[in-house]
Amino acid sequence: MHDMTVSALSSALAAGEFSSVELTQHLIDRVKTMDGDYNAFLTLCEEHALQQASNADKARAAGQVHPLCGIPVAHKDIFCTNGIRTSCGSKMLDNFVPPYNATMIDKFDSAGAVMLGKTNMDEFAMGASNETSFYGPVRNPWNTGCVPGGSSGGSAAAVAARLAPAATGTDTGGSIRQPAALCGISGMKPTYGRVSRYGMIAFASSLDQAGPMARSVEDLALLLELMSGHDPRDSTSIDADVPKYSASLNNSIEGLRIGVPKEYFSEGLNPGTAACVEQAINEYQKLGANISELSLPHSPLSVPAYYVVAPAEASTNLSRFDGVRYGHRCDNPTDLNDMYTRTRSEGFGDEVKRRILVGTYSLSAGYYDAYYRKAQKIRRLIQQDFVEAFKSVDLLIGPTSPSPAFPLGAKTSDPVAMYLEDIYTIAANLAGLPALSMPAGLVDDKPVGVQLIGNYLCEAQLLNAAHQFQCATDWHQQQPVQGDMV
Ligand code: GLN
């Protein structure tokens, strides 16, 4: 059962081949026996999941037909879950039990899906390797000496290790796509505003976007259909109909215009990764797409612009963690200032503190124009590059990450090296565009992802093109060699 995709599980549940309770119990057993190797889960919702599974079995028996009814899904521990701890990977929220659900969680509940557990992540989603979590790093199922990518590393590892058929993640600068690439699964960041951010703990509000992670693009389409849609509780959510993404997956891509940005093949790109992306481009040519090279001239500025804008927003978002309202509070404060200072010193890890310092600095009077305003201007130029590009092509293709998974600890002492992991993913966030990553090869027995970027609200086209690639190749079916199986 654990090898099956969401769509295969959905048909099997519908046909009565097994029940959701059996499936859920099987995955719980796998998590209990195997997750010691990966550290993908922070909370296993055993009782809650089995209760939901039993409800789902009854709903199916009574004729409920939502395809995700009874399907176990793991959620990144950034989504507030009513009555279930939501830590955001931080000591600050180690004891935080939200009194409400994120809209996204409500949507899964209303479909009858099963919440298997909450997954490990970089602290407050800041990181590219899942090593900044207060709860220790996640390990890559393909090679447990290597990182899974971040910040949704727990979700990616859980799906790759067959502990969950699907998971949710969030992507502020690449945090769905990078771990998907490094763990050999598919993951999508939709258009900014497509999925509600209500109840999703904020990192950088103008960039954050939730999305699905799974073992096939077909599954991404199913999940995205459920997750998307307008939410009056999120003022940035888009009020536009949600297409039936799964209905257009099999459209022909003959004549699809795919652009190859030349800046995405820069010198930092691992040659093995480059070869996989080139092979994927050839595959698209065989499928009838028209490939052309183009330029996104401002994309080399995306990392510096992001690392001003994102910390600036983070520094304001994280000011709410002050020991008064949520989470950690230091012991025996002598006065208010002592409480703020010690609470925040104790509750936040080094990377979060670094972001707060950088963000506060770039927003301060005297530096605002030189840093924050300039970064916003660059952001606009980056966005305009895409507007220009989409006048002549339908999609863009390139690598997701500069290299396959690297060893744990290899970049932790060099923040700039870690930030450069985001070089190919950040621009889509700065522009608010939808993008996905899917498996496109193996280098040194480790997965490589190829990235597709689409125009605003063109998720259907992106998923269609990606699904056609998966119909013609089997990279997404490769799986890590694991120890004792349950
Ligand atoms: N790696 C980027 C950062 O550390 C992006 C993280 C994310 O997308 N949440 O900010």
In short:
The chain has 486 residues and is α/β, with parallel strands linked by helices. It is globular, with a radius of gyration of 21 Å.
Identify every distinct bound molecule in the structure, by name, code or SMILES.
glutamine
CATH architecture of the domain at 6-254: Alpha-Beta Complex
The low-confidence parts are: none
Could you tell me the CATH topology label of the domain at 6-254.
Amidase signature (AS) enzymes
CATH class of the domain at 6-254: Alpha Beta
Strand-pairing-aware structural class: alpha/beta
How would you describe this protein?
This protein is an alpha/beta fold and 486 residues long. The chain has a domain of 249 residues: Amidase signature (AS) enzymes. 37% of the residues lie in helices and 13% in strands. It is built from 15 helices and 11 strands. The protein has an 11-stranded mixed β-sheet with strand order 1-3-2-4-6-5-10-11-9-7-8, sandwiched between helices. The radius of gyration is 21 Å and the shape is globular. The N and C termini lie close together (11 Å).
Topology:
Layout: H1 6-14, H2 20-34, E1 41-44, H3 46-61, E2 72-76, H4 103-111, E3 114-119, H5 153-160, E4 166-170, H6 177-183, E5 186-189, E6 210-214, H7 217-227, E7 257-261, H8 271-286, E8 290-294, H9 302-317, H10 336-347, H11 350-363, H12 369-389, E9 395-399, H13 415-419, H14 426-431, E10 435-443, E11 446-454, H15 459-472
Parallel strand pairs: 2-3, 2-4, 7-8, 7-9
Antiparallel strand pairs: 1-3, 4-6, 5-6, 5-10, 9-11, 10-11
Helix pairs in contact: 2-3, 5-6, 7-15, 9-11, 9-12
The structure holds glutamine.
